[in-house]
Structure of 3-isopropylmalate dehydrogenase:
Amino acid sequence: SRSLNLAVIPGDGIGQEVVAEGLKVLSAVLPQDVKLETKEYDFGARRYHATGETLTDADLDELKRHDAILLGAIGDPSVPSGILERGFLLKLRFAFDHHVNLRPSKLLPGVATPLAGEPQIDFVVVREGTEGPYTGNGGTIRKGTPHEVATEVSVNTAFGVERVVRDAFARAQARPRKKLTLVHKNNVLTFAGHLWTNVFNKVAEEYPEVTTDYIHVDAATIYLVTDPARFDVIVTDNLFGDIITDLAAAVSGGIGVAASGNINPGREFPSMFEPVHGSAPDIAGQGKADPSATVLSVALLLRHLGHDAEATRIEDAVSADLAERVGLPARSTSEIGDALAARVAG
Amino acid sequence: SRSLNLAVIPGDGIGQEVVAEGLKVLSAVLPQDVKLETKEYDFGARRYHATGETLTDADLDELKRHDAILLGAIGDPSVPSGILERGFLLKLRFAFDHHVNLRPSKLLPGVATPLAGEPQIDFVVVREGTEGPYTGNGGTIRKGTPHEVATEVSVNTAFGVERVVRDAFARAQARPRKKLTLVHKNNVLTFAGHLWTNVFNKVAEEYPEVTTDYIHVDAATIYLVTDPARFDVIVTDNLFGDIITDLAAAVSGGIGVAASGNINPGREFPSMFEPVHGSAPDIAGQGKADPSATVLSVALLLRHLGHDAEATRIEDAVSADLAERVGLPARSTSEIGDALAARVAG
Ligand SMILES: CC(C)[C@H](C(=O)O)[C@@H](O)C(=O)O
Ligand SMILES: CC(C)[C@H](C(=O)O)[C@@H](O)C(=O)O
């Protein structure tokens, strides 16, 4: 008998609501012989206010025992900027070596886009997750004085770049178009840029079937709005990946449907799956949040653990649900979850 | 009698063609009593190939004597990435302390945008030009080995941040909407983020009439495609400014009409004005390039030097020309230049 042992972190704001629907759809899609066990954790703003803790070593030891982690959203205006981001989200990515931050963008039929015309959008961004300017290196001297100097150090290693570039090539090779684009800013950030470009070109030799190209990050934002069809797989640095995936989500239907995986491909640590959207405190508790992004994150989770058929069933269900929404009155978070659960079970 | 003593750097590719039209319009707009003197410099790929030089100390001494610099475009595929960017463009920005990198975005009537609907776009980005990850700090160890480590250091000083933030507040105060948005990533880049945020909030106290807000750079890319009307003036870091101004140019009519100024507000050194677009080697020499972005850069140049009425006449001419283009056959670079020169003279 098989089992799926999941750590669930609803988090803040709409996190609670969307995670409930993600679990509903997960239960509905799993085959009878897979035993689903979930354990909920209370990380986020409430825990921080109550205890001052964001994520302790003991927490990490507990989380480590699960097959994967499903997260709703972390963040609340009552917590100063940076505390939960660095103290929870990034701490978890670094502690569990989530070096592949996977963010697919697909404009599904019936979904509105801010772009004119009928753009074809179907690409995936492989964002490095454990290096770059996200390492917390840097510091401040003479804080608060007219002579303050603050630095941020982007750290890039051959080890770290090569493993994510290899992951991206493998993903490109497995897709019909077999195209991989490196996004960086190697004309200005020449130290990191040379490393990324050299590693990319070296690994490319092992993938003769994959077409490659290179675009500066600033130009990439132009293509994302004028010709998103040019992209198949993109591999990029942690910060550039952060920026272009929000834009990618915006043009391919909005953050209501954007899913992401913080993946440790070797499975030494559990991977973490979460919608790209935040906790949206303005609509929290009102049943207005669209759980689709969380449900699609559950699909990424299932695919990561080898349940490909179930992942595809979820993706098809979301796709069908979005297509049939057009022109109908808005449904609540749980109504959408119910509809998706019915589809995947059906 | 007044004079305008201009250093002209046509540069590479279409740079030559568009600068010729920029100068044509400049001559046509200037009052009779302003004596225009221009001196052309051959910086760019050809000079680099011929001499190995990009920009020497002697060059800087020469350039220093002018009131301003007009640049077409620098860059050619025959030169390895980074050489001309770091060795010429950035060297000039740093040497002449161009700390205000000014990039207006205005969607003019009749101009095509990739966005659906009829977005209202009229904002200006004040990008810091001499700090951040552009300083060239950082380095590489164990280059080319599996143990390579490459770093890039973003350097931010209270001095550097405050002067550009002050410039942005003054610009916001002078505009009808009086709104200033700080774009950063202060939840992750906490050292630099705190500095930017604190300086911004401190200067804000001196501008009670200016409405302020803060957005993370990733979210800013979303707003630029879903709600660009929310922006009036944006102030941001060098790298974030690079990225969002390309996106801003794309949504507001493309880089064919995007102008920029690399400004030293105190006029200790000449400021440099250039179109946002590059040298476009694929269409160079064919008379296909749109000189409008260069002509609009000439308007920024004139305004910087106090010729406001002439700047406005150029902007109105470009605006009228773009509006009347709709549905007409394409004109050559010099035909557009002629039309604009006729309008400003008229
Ligand atoms: C919340 C923040 C730390 C995070 C990031 O910058 O990675 C978010 O923007 C994301 O994209 O997951
Ligand atoms: C060419 C490059 C050095 C430059 C930059 O990154 O600033 C360009 O992209 C720009 O925006 O002016």
Notes: The domain at 113-252 of chain B is CATH 3.40.718.10 (Isopropylmalate Dehydrogenase). Chain B has a mean pLDDT of 97.
